[in-house]
Structure formats: structure tokens, C-alpha cells
Design a protein that fits this description.
With 183 residues, this protein is of the alpha+beta class. The chain has one domain. 32% of the residues lie in helices and 32% in strands. A hairpin with a 6-residue loop joins β3 and β4.
């Protein structure tokens, strides 16, 4: 069909005495329109890829924050007794669990550094790219606690954790709370 349109009719002339086919201006218009459409579709495709990368990075950061919060909560349920908490600052929480293992959650305070979980001297990363982190401590009556640490009995009843992760220009924040089971 295309061949028929571009090839002159057997007599050499079509209706009106002109040869059949497309003129150069007609072909140029088609090429310009096709180019504009190709550019529009390619920019939509590029935007779709960027959106996917953005959502994938956000999903990974959310998974890291959830894992870190769940691990902190799980370990706080294993505090040995009310004299086992040895460090409780905005960026560090250290205690001894029921199996006499020293457990610590710490962040250096430097944006982009990792949140570390250390148990019996073995460290692992809980979350990468921490932009900010804050442990807060609460008494049983719901007021803020100024942590009393080991060897004295602590007044910490509940611990809240605010964490914000950063990856490139994206940030994800989370807030969680856990009760210290043994206290």
C-alpha cells in the first residue's frame, strides 16, 4: 500500500496531470510531527523511570526505618531489670539483656552516618544514611524522664525513637515508641 502511494501510476500521471506521491513539504511536515511525538513520548518515559527510582529509594528507606524500630522494640523487651540501663542519651541507648549480653543502639550524630546495633561486641547496621535520630525517655506517669542509669534503678518506662533517613535529595521520617518490658 505504501509502495502504491509513493510510486507513480502506470501512465506516469495521476489526476489533474500531476504525478502521484508525496511532495517534499508534505514529507517534511510528517517528519517534524513524528519527531515532536517521539520527543514527547521519550520525556514521558524518562519521567516514569525517575518516578520509579524515587519510589524504589523511598520504599528501601521505609523498610530500613521499620526494621530499626522493630529491632529496638524487640530488644527493649529483653532488658534484664531496672538497673540494667547504662547509657540513655539522645543518640545512644545501652543496656544489659536477660542473657547478660550488652546491647547498644548508637548513632554518631553525623548526617548520613549509620544507626548501629551492637550486641556482645558484634556490630551491625540497622539503618543506613541516618540524617537525624533522637531517643526520648518517659516515666511511668507519662512525663519526660531524666534517665537514672545503672547501678541505680532507672526511671525509664517508655522509649520513643524519632529517625529520619536521607538518600540523595529524598528523606523519610518515622516515629515509634516502645515500653521497656522488664521495668
Amino acid at each position: 500500500m505504501v509502495h502504491q502511494l509513493l510510486t507513480p501510476v502506470r501512465g506516469g500521471r495521476g489526476r489533474g496531470g500531476r504525478e502521484r506521491g508525496f511532495t517534499l513539504p508534505e514529507l517534511l511536515i510528517v517528519i517534524v510531527i513524528a519527531s515532536v511525538l517521539a520527543i514527547a513520548f521519550s520525556s514521558m518515559f524518562i519521567q516514569a523511570v525517575k518516578t520509579y527510582q524515587f519510589m524504589d529509594a523511598e520504599k528501601d528507606m521505609l523498610a530500613d526505618t521499620r526494621y530499626a524500630e522493630e529491632r529496638v522494640t524487640r530488644e527493649l523487651k529483653r532488658v534484664r531489670n531496672n538497673t540494667s540501663i547504662s547509657a540513655a542519651t539522645a543518640t545512644t541507648l545501652t543496656f544489659v539483656d536477660r542473657q547478660n549480653a550488652t546491647v547498644s543502639f548508637s548513632w554518631s550524630g553525623v548526617s548520613g552516618a549509620d544507626l548501629l546495633f551492637t550486641k556482645s561486641g558484634v556490630s551491625q547496621t540497622l539503618a543506613k544514611g541516618v540524617d537525624s535520630l533522637a531517643f526520648r525517655y518517659w516515666k511511668q506517669d507519662g512525663t519526660a524522664a531524666t534517665p537514672v542509669l545503672s547501678p541505680s534503678a532507672t526511671d525509664i518506662w517508655r522509649v520513643t525513637l524519632y529517625m529520619r533517613l536521607i538518600k540523595g535529595t529524598q528523606t523519610v521520617a518515622s516515629f515509634g515508641s516502645a515500653f521497656v518490658r522488664s521495668l
